[in-house]
Design goal:
Layout (H helix, E strand, L loop, with lengths): L5 E6 L5 H10 L4 E7 L3 H10 L4 E3 L2 H5 L6 E4 L6 H10 L3 E5 L6 H13 L4 E4 L6 H11 L6 E11 L8 H17 L3 E9 L8 E8 L4 E7 L1 E13 L3 E5 L7 E9 L13 E8 L8 H15 L7 H18 L6 E2 L6 H6 L1 H8 L4
Parallel strand pairs: 1-2, 1-4, 2-3, 4-5, 5-6, 7-10
Antiparallel strand pairs: 7-11, 8-9, 8-15, 9-10, 11-12, 12-13, 13-14
Bound molecules: nicotinamide-adenine-dinucleotide.
Length: 363
């Protein structure tokens, strides 16, 4: 099948942007990695040395004013996501935004509505949902292999990189939240979050908990102040338990045939005993592909087919709603914040005009 190759621009060539440039640059059948933009000339010079065929510019306007550019990927600090994405969408560019999608729910809503109105693809960089182990976990859960999901606990810890504009929950928890929403397919109903800012005024260690409408419960621990790099998620089900350790080169998923049952009948306390089941541990072979490559290809495919991305603007908004509520909880000593009213896209699109009006001053 022949189709027009898409011309792609990437904005932001700091730590993460070069990974997007490399992956879009490698998808030579689908796109041309045409322009990269950064305010820092040293970063542009570095990109030019790595990719001599790619144009570089410090001027964002060069991208939005170019009729040749079909799609833009934004990998700047979060505080710039909304303003840049808004201009891209207004200029008719399909837009990919790194996680977290924007700094507030209302910014996300505006971007979702702009993409919808202009019939453009809007995708968010929830990279892990494109990784083979996470897809495997989803299959395990959706097929019923794990049984009823009781709880999920995620730990994403390391030393740094401290961010200036967001706390550690906004930086690291989007990965865990997006994975949990993807594998569980359940709606979160409330969030609690506690944390502490030790060094630069932003919380560098947080503990978040989420309750879901299907009874599942999740905790997410995030830290920039830990001596070890930890990327671990434990899923406890009624039939089996799973540990996903992303720091392992192989065997990232281990399925434990362990479970606990309560006795169906007992007359006295002495007769009450839990029944523990100890079975084998299975570490399935999972073929690895770079998740970012899958993600970049999916963005280009969605532009071509008009399909909704698996990490759409609405998915980005859901994650930001949880983050925003986590901040409200943090500011209130960890109290429970209900998540209501934002989940129905049909209802949401019905309110688009009203929301755009409300956010006109946000830009
Ligand atoms: N998906 C993932 O796994 C993953 C991993 C790391 C970071 N990220 C995300 O990527 C984004 C960037 O993070 P980072 O760590 O690379 O940040 P960074 O600070 O290292 O780099 C950002 C770059 O953007 C440039 N920049 C800032 N404002 C700009 C503007 N208006 N126009 C052009 N360039 C501008 C800066 O000069 C800098 O080079 C963040 O949203 C972050 O959360 C995603």
């Amino acid at each position: 099948m022949s189709f027009k190759k898409l011309n792609v621009a990437v904005i932001g060539c700091g730590y993460w942007g070069p990974n997007l440039i490399r992956n879009f640059g490698g998808l030579t059948d689908d796109c041309t990695m045409q322009v990269v933009c950064d305010q820092n000339q040293d970063r542009l010079n570095h990109m030019k040395r790595l990719y001599p065929g790619v144009e570089t510019t410090k001027r964002f306007e060069d991208i939005i004013n170019s009729p040749e550019i079909d799609a833009v990927a934004i990998a700047t600090p979060v505080r710039y996501h909304y303003a840049l994405a808004k201009e891209c969408l207004r200029a008719g560019k399909h837009t990919f935004i790194e996680k977290p999608m924007a700094s507030s729910v209302v910014e996300c809503q505006h971007l979702v509505s702009l993409a919808e109105e202009n019939n453009l693809t809007l995708m968010v960089g929830h990279t892990f949902i494109y990784s083979a182990p996470v897809r495997y976990m989803r299959e395990l859960i959706q097929s019923g292999t794990i049984g009823e999901i009781y709880s999920i606990s995620a730990r994403r810890l390391n030393l740094g990189l401290f961010q200036k504009d967001i706390n550690v929950a906004w930086d690291l928890a989007p990965h865990d939240i997006s994975i949990i929403l993807y594998v569980l397919d359940a709606e979160p109903v409330s969030v609690n979050c506690q944390g502490k800012a030790h060094l630069n005024g932003q919380e560098d260690a947080t503990n978040m908990s989420l309750e879901f409408d299907n009874g599942a419960f999740a905790t997410i621990q995030s830290s920039w102040l830990d001596p070890n790099k930890v990327r671990e998620m434990t899923i406890v089900g009624s039939k089996k338990m799973v540990i996903y350790d992303d720091t392992q080169p192989n065997e990232k998923i281990r399925i434990y045939d362990k479970s606990v049952k309560t006795p169906p009948h007992y007359d006295t306390f002495a007769e009450f005993t839990f029944s523990y089941h100890y079975g084998d541990m299975l570490a399935p072979y999972i073929q690895q592909v770079e998740p970012l490559k899958v993600e970049c290809k999916h963005f280009l495919d969605c532009i071509r087919t008009g399909e909704t991305p698996e990490s759409s603007g609405l998915d980005g908004l859901r994650v930001v709603q949880i983050l925003e509520s986590s901040t409200a909880s943090l500011r209130n000593g960890g109290s429970r914040v209900e998540l209501t009213g934002h989940w129905d896209p049909i209802e949401f699109f019905g309110k688009c005009d009203e929301l755009v009006g409300q956010t006109a001053s946000a830009g």
